[in-house]
Amino acid sequence: MQISLLLFFGGLSFCKAFQGGILVDNERKPVDDKQRQQIQDYLQAVLQTNNDINLTTIHDFNDGLVLHIEDSLAGLEEVNSAPDGQLVDLGTGGGFPGAPLALASSRDVLLVDSTKKKIDAIMGIVNELQIPRVKAYAGRIEELAQEQPGAFAVATARALSSLPSLLELAAPLLIQGGHLVAYKSDKADEEIERAILLEQKLGMKFLSCRDLVLSDGITPRSIIVFEKVAPPTVKLPRRPGMAQKRPYA
Ligand code: SAH
Fold first, then answer.
1. Whose CA is nearest to atom 16 of ligand 1?
2. Domains present along the chain, CATH in parentheses
3. Which residues pair with 208 in a beta bridge?
4. Contact (CB, 8 A) for 148 and 244
5. SS3 letters across 99-168
6. What is the reported pTM?
7. Is 17 in the pocket of ligand 1 (CB under 6 A)?
8. Cβ–ligand 1 contact at 155 (below 6 Å)
9. Quick check: 26 pLDDT over 70?
10. Residue 30 — pLDDT band, cuts 50, 70, 90?
């Protein structure tokens, strides 16, 4: 309640501003030349495949460089700060942010999507380009949580669902101390506030939020991290669909 009031009066923001996005080709280079080439080849292949299977609404390579690649790598710092272990990309679609993160970090990555056609298409690309350490799961996140509870050190999610739903989906998949790294557009404070109401129930605790703008100068991004600090006090996962259709907050 205190937090709501503070936010209402504009006195508190959970997110820290960060000057300048992470460019694929800027001087601070989060990736080396080989990694950059592999990531660009991946984007090219996704855009080509997109003619047959709908993987992304972006068709232009240069737009994709910013809105898929630079954006996916915007959370690299947070991913690298998480405990060692496997990363799961929830609702990966065309493999974002999971595939670029696999190429830019040394983690094993599992790409998860309920649309089998998308998973088959991106694994075709992963195999053709011989991208190492990437596996995929065609099925619902809730099913994966039944099969592999507590198997992941990091869970990432972009454009999947609200933060309260993401916390619920990620909690049963994460190891104790594992991190959820959520990619949100700006004005994330209200969602964070709702998610914080679920901290006890889901055993997840707010850790950080970083605001940035991508190099197009107009696309805002908030990278939000929650840590799994305890087992959830409710039985998770709930029935498939519940976390997204009837979130706890
Ligand atoms: N992360 C990608 C795609 C976002 S679209 C990007 O940012 O570009 C959301 C994707 O999540 C869709 O491909 C959809 O099939 C998948 N999805 C939604 N709910 C899911 C669930 N419960 N389990 C698995 N996949 C899910």
1. 91
2. 14-230 (3.40.50.150)
3. 225
4. no
5. HHHHHHCCCCEEEEECCHHHHHHHHHHHHHCCCCCEEEEECCHHHHHHHCCCCEEEEEEECCCCHHHHHH
6. 0.93
7. no
8. no
9. no
10. confident
CA 73 to the chain's CA centroid: 10
Which is nearest to 142 in space by CA: 170, 167, 122?
170
Atom of ligand 1 nearest to the CA of 157: 1
pLDDT of 17:
83
Question: Ligand 1 centroid to 11 CA: how many Å?
Answer: 34
The string over 198-219, giving b where at least 16 C-beta atoms fall within 10 Å of a residue's C-beta and e elsewhere, is beebbbbebbbbbbbbbbeeeb
Q: Is 140 in the pocket of ligand 1 (CB under 6 A)?
A: yes
Residue 6 amino acid letter:
L
Judged against a pLDDT cut of 50, whether residue 9 lies above it is answered with no
Structure tokens at 56: 């992304």
